[in-house]
Design goal:
Layout (H helix, E strand, L loop, with lengths): L2 H5 L1 E5 L4 H12 L3 E6 L2 H14 L5 E6 H7 L2 E4 L6 H8 L7 E4 L20 H9 L4 E4 L6 H4 L9 E5 L2 H13 L4 E6 L3 H18 L15
Parallel strand pairs: 1-2, 1-4, 2-3, 4-5, 5-6, 7-8
Antiparallel strand pairs: 6-7
Bound molecules: NADP nicotinamide-adenine-dinucleotide phosphate (NAP).
NADP nicotinamide-adenine-dinucleotide phosphate binds next to helix 2.
Length: 225
C-alpha cells in the first residue's frame, strides 16, 4: 500500500451498481479510502459492506449519499446510467470545486445500445464539463472496461484510454488506472472522449454478434512504462 493511496479519498457516485462497485473494490484493495455514493444512504452502506466482505475486512469503504461522498473526497468518480448523468451531477455540483472528476458514463440510449448516439455537447464527459464549470478538472476513463472483469483479481484483457481537460488530470487518473490493476494510456484532450465513449457501443455490438460478454481493446505498437 503506498502513501499516496493512504492520503487519497475516492468517491464513487452510483458505486452501488455494477461498474462502480467493481472499481471501488479494486481501489479499496489498493489502499485508497473509498466512499460509495448513492441516492439512498442505506443502499450505499450495504454496498460498502459487500465490498469489505470481499476484501476479508481489509479495506476502508464507507457508504453515504452522493453529495456527502463528493464533499468528503479528493477525487470523484461517476458510474451511473446516462439517463441519470445530468441529475446526479447537478446534485453534487456544489461539492466539486477544485476536485478531479472522472466520468465513466457512456451515453447509451436504450434500446439501441449497439449504436453510437452522442449528446449535443459531444460526449458525456464534455456535458459534465458544461454542468460542473471550469472549477473541476474532468477526465473520461474506464468506459470500455466491462464490470465482469472488476470484482475479481485477475488480469483484465482491455486497456483504459484516458482523456481529460489537462495533462496533469490525465496523469492523476492514470495512477488510479494502475492502482486498479489495469493498463492505461494518455489518450489526449477531453474532446477525444467522443471516440472512447463511442467505442463502448462497438464492443457491445461485438459481444452481441460473437456471443461474448466482455470484448475489450488493447493498444499495440507502443510502450507505456
Ligand atoms: N456495466 C458495465 O460493464 C459498464 C462498463 C463500462 C462503462 N459502464 C458505464 O458505467 C455507468 C454505470 O453502469 P452500471 O452498469 O454500473 O449501471 P447500473 O448498475 O445500472 O447503475 C449504477 C448506479 O446508478 C444509479 N442509478 C441507476 N438508475 C438511476 C437513475 N435513473 N437515476 C439516478 N441514479 C440511477 C444507481 O445507484 P443508486 O440507486 O444507489 O443511486 C445504480 O446502482 C453507465 O454509464 C455505463 O454505461 C458500464
Amino acid at each position: 500500500m503506498d502513501n499516496e493511496a493512504l492520503m487519497m479519498t475516492i468517491a464513487v457516485l452510483g458505486g452501488t451498481g455494477k461498474e462502480g462497485k467493481g472499481l471501488a473494490y479494486r481501489w479499496a484493495k489498493a489502499g485508497y479510502q473509498v466512499l460509495i455514493g448513492s441516492r439512498a444512504t442505506e443502499k450505499a452502506i450495504l454496498a460498502a459492506a459487500e465490498i469489505i466482505e470481499l476484501l476479508d475486512g481489509a479495506g476502508s469503504v464507507v457508504g453515504m449519499s452522493n453529495p456527502e461522498a463528493a464533499a468528503q473526497a479528493n477525487i470523484v468518480v461517476l458510474t451511473v446510467p446516462y439517463a441519470a448523468h445530468r441529475d446526479t451531477l447537478e446534485s453534487v455540483k456544489d461539492q466539486m470545486k477544485g476536485k478531479l472528476f472522472i466520468d465513466v458514463t457512456v451515453p447509451l440510449v436504450p434500446p439501441k445500445v449497439t449504436k453510437v448516439q452522442m449528446p449535443a455537447a459531444g460526449s458525456a464527459a464534455q456535458e459534465a464539463m458544461q454542468i460542473l464549470g471550469e472549477e473541476a478538472e474532468v477526465v473520461a476513463a474506464f468506459q470500455n472496461i466491462s464490470h465482469e472483469h472488476l470484482l475479481g483479481n485477475g488480469d483484465v484483457a482491455c486497456d483504459v484510454l484516458v482523456t481529460g481537460t489537462s495533462r496533469n488530470a490525465r496523469q492523476e487518473a492514470l495512477k488510479l488506472v494502475e492502482a486498479a490493476g489495469l493498463t492505461g494510456w494518455d489518450a489526449g484532450p477531453i474532446e477525444n472522449s467522443v471516440v472512447v465513449e463511442g467505442l463502448t457501443s462497438v464492443l457491445i455490438n461485438i459481444n452481441k454478434q460473437y456471443g461474448s460478454t466482455h470484448a475489450g481493446i488493447k493498444i499495440t505498437g507502443a510502450k507505456n512504462k
